Amino acid sequence: MKITRAKRAHKTLSFYSNNFGFRQPYQVLIDGTMCFFALKNKINLQEQLPKYFASEVKLLTTQCVIIETEKLGPSLYGAMLIAKQFPLHRCGHEGNPQSGSTCLLSMIGKINKNRYIVGTQDRDLQEKLRLVPGAPILYIHQKAPTLEAPSAASLKRSDKVSQAKFLPEKQSGENVDEIKRRIFGASKEEEKPVFRKKKIKGPNPLSCKKKKKQNSSVKNLPVIEGKVKKNRTRKRVKVASHIKEHIKSKVGDS
Ligand SMILES: [Zn+2]
What we know:
The protein is of the alpha/beta class. The chain has helices spanning about 5-20, 30-40, 45-55, 65-70, 75-85, 100-110, 125-130, 150-170, 175-185, 190-200, 205-220, 225-235, 240-254; strands at about 25-30, 55-60, 115-120, 135-140, 145. The longest helix has 20 residues, at about 150-170. The termini are far apart. The structure holds zinc ion. The site of zinc ion (ZN) has 6 residues, from loops.
């Protein structure tokens, strides 16, 4: 078996697993046409299918399929013998047998809730199955079992399924940033602007700049300016007039 075939089958199975809940062992419903082609191409389905799927596979058929092959006579005798090897799945037509295709279509229904894969070479049945979302088709092509790529109906439904996964978040009105904030808390980057805003509310930055210039001009002056500063502070000290006179008189005495 070529690697590309195995990869393609794995990809298709993954699609049905992810979007329609298919699980191992995969249940494959085999009809008379599949048995006929298997015999013609010398394919042992019981051996080949688990290898092709690289998974556990459960091959099944129905009473209706077996009755149909019996009715078709000697040409389908070999196919009937193959079909009889598979376990019978109850189809609900006991006592009122249907054609193989009608039987299998009724088992698939509108949504294939039991997740069957249908093994058939019947073109009409394949066409009808392609209209059912999540109904994989298996057939024999170039002497090898082949799992058909998902039909348009399956792809369309899978889009709705993936969209539905995102809907709860959309409905809650949260965007990605809000979800991040809820899970990880506010990031440091987000906190910074809050402080910046508070700083802006403080003194007028223009007046600050002017003061800075004045201060720097004072600082740039010679060291003598330090003394000037000290004198300025001393000037502010209030000295009673009688003490000033006393000091003056002392200075005068000396
Ligand atoms: Zn049936």
